[in-house]
Every structure is written in structure tokens, then in C-alpha cells.
Amino acid sequence: MKMHNFSAGPCILPKEVLQKASEAVVELDGIGLSLIEISHRSKEFVAIMEKARSLALELLGLEGKGYQAIFLQGGASMQFLMTAYNLLDKKAGYVNTGTWSQKAIKEARLFGEVVEVASSQEDNFKYIPKGYSIPSDLDYLHLTSNNTIYGTQIKEFPETDVPLVCDMSSDIFSRQLDFSKFDLIYAGAQKNMGPAGATLVVVKEEILGKVSHIIPSMLDYSVHVSKDSMFNTPPVFAVYVSMLTMKWLKDLGGIAAIEEINERKANLIYSEIELNPVFSGFAAKEDRSIMNATFNITDDELKDVFDAMCKEAGISGINGHRSVGGYRASMYNALPLESVGVLVDIMSELEKKG
Ligand SMILES: Cc1ncc(COP(=O)(O)O)c(C=O)c1O
Q: Is 146 within the bounds of a domain?
């Protein structure tokens, strides 16, 4: 049965990437050895790591602009503390747009003063705060570009001289932005890049080395940068698959090309949510994410029917996060437009039944 994978992460990856990755597990590019049984210091893996690092910068338009891309472990959650450990000397600002921001705030408080410059908590994070003022004495301002759980996404980033740190775990490589506005970007691989196990960190070198405390080697970005992301054994499989996915994206036409497809997918589902009285959207209209569409069913009695219809059509992974409920259709880069079409057809069929 053809499945339509709307999972929030880990999630759908391009079929050809999965095919090539599975072959490499048996034998990498005709070398007679598996990708996961060769040394990370072998010339084959060093080339893979270098390719992954350079593709990340190339796709983001950051080549030759003083940035370094590294692949670390510990998930995006490790970055909640690493960003603060490396950049927070006195005071940092955070915009609280939900669970992931809150977790980042909790870790940062271990390292210095944290100011919550804005929050949408009072409305269960249905919207993105705007027009807030940013104190000029912050070491950095931390943002979450896409709030996976609530389906909200920052459309306009603040103009400020304060360094910007951004958790882009759930929308990296999905839309065109001026990425040079950010001093540090991090993203767990398991949405638009690859399997869980690697986290991409893109950092402007000039912001490092400014804190007054000592940083343990494994948590020090400068150490990982100086060792070309090979300070210790990297997650070789996750880096390899991320490299393949970035290459897939580049061959497709890069972020500009995927953004167009992502916009079409998002428009398709949001028009249905707006027009169909059986469904109501969760996120504020102007802040709706092109990656995760969150919605509820207005008539509880139709829930079982809808679930059964989805199951029969091979739709997988659309249950909402436990803190929000309802449904969430995650439409990451590799999800074809056709899958959104199948979901939308079911939604409109349900309206006729209701
Ligand atoms: C925006 C965002 N940040 C952070 C995380 C945490 O990622 P990890 O599980 O890799 O630590 C997630 C996980 O879904 C996320 O969506």
C-alpha cells in the first residue's frame, strides 16, 4: 500500500536518498566495505563530511561569509545548552514560542541571566509575538523559527544589532531567508535532512571565544570547528544521509525550488481548512507554518470516521502533539504534493458525510 507520511519527525525522506543510503550500508560506492564499518578518518568518510559541510553552507548561501558548518550529536536539545555555554556571558534574550523555546530557556538559565523578551504562552502559543523591543545589551537573542508542535512560523525576523541565534530544527532548508542575518543556526537532522543522530550547527566564527568561562572541549564549538567536525567520531550514517538529502535538494534547484513546492502544499491544506466547516485551524492565520499544519475537527462524532478514512488511504502520522491535540500534518521537504492532495480529498469527502 502506498503510504503518505505526515510524521512530525523523524519523518519522510526522499525515496532515492533512502535507496542510496541502504545500499551504502551494505557497500559504499563500490569500495568493498560498508559505510558504517569504515574509519571516520578514511579518505572516503572525510570526503563525505567535507561535502556535507560545504553543501550546508552552499544551500544557505553562506559560503565565504565567515561561517562554519559542523555536525554534532545530542540532538537539537544539546544545542539548548551549547548555545548558552558558548555565547552567554551575562545576559541573553529569548522569545518564548512554545515547548522548544521553553526548554532552551531552562538550559540557558544555568549560564547567566535570561530575559524573556516576548511570549505567546497566554494564548497556548497560537501566534508569533511581534513588535517587541530587544534590549541592546544582550549577548544574543534566541528564536525558534518554526514551532513544530503548534504549527507557527516566524515570517519576519527582528532587525537588531544583537546577535541572532535560531533553532531551525523543523524548517531548515525549506524557505528562502537571508541566512546571513543569523550568527548561529542549529537544526536536528531528523526533519528536512536525515535520520536522527546528527545536528547541524552553522556558526559565524567571529562570535566564538568571547565568553569569560572555560568550556569543556566536547561542548565547545571552536574545538569542533578547528577539527573540521571530527573532534570525536561523528555520527557517520546520519551525516552521510544528510549529505545525500542536501545533494538531492541542490539537484532539485535548491531552497528556491523547494520553497515553491512547500508553498503549494501549504496553500492546498490551509485553503481546505478555511473552507471546510468540519475543520478549524489552530495557529493564527498570519503565522501559519508551511511545514506543520495544525487543525482540529469541529464535530467530535466525525473523528473516528476521519481516522478510519485516513488509515484506509495510507495516511500516517497526522495526530497532533499531546500538548495541543487535534491533528498535525507535517509537510517536510520530501513530502510530495500528491500526499497533501490525498489528505485534502479525504477532508472534503468528510464534509459531505458530515
Ligand atoms: C523546533 C525543535 N527544536 C528542538 C527539538 C528537539 O530536538 P531533539 O529531539 O533532536 O533534541 C525539536 C524536536 O522535534 C523541534 O521540533
A: yes
Q: How far is the CA of 171 from the centre of ligand 1 (A)?
A: 11
**Whole-prediction pTM:** 0.98
> CA 198, CA 149: separation in Å to the nearest integer?
21
CB of 254 closer than 6 A to ligand 1? no
Domain end position, chosen among 226, 252, 278: 252
State whether the beta carbon of 317 lies less than 6 angstroms from ligand 1.
no
Q: Pick from 210, 233, 252: which residue ends a domain? A: 252
User: In 3D, which of 343, 349, 330 has the Cα closest to residue 6?
Assistant: 330
Residue 94 belongs to what domain range? 15-252
Domain-located, residue 10: no
Q: Which atom of ligand 1 is nearest to the CA of 147?
A: 1
- Residues 145-171 have pLDDT tens digits of 999 999 999 999 999 999 999 999 999
Residue 323 has pLDDT above 90, yes or no: no
User: Cα separation of 142 and 154, whole Å?
Assistant: 12
Taking CA atoms only, the protein residue closest to ligand 1 atom 16 is 148
* Mean pLDDT in residue range 166-180: 98
Q: For this structure, is 248 an active site residue? A: no
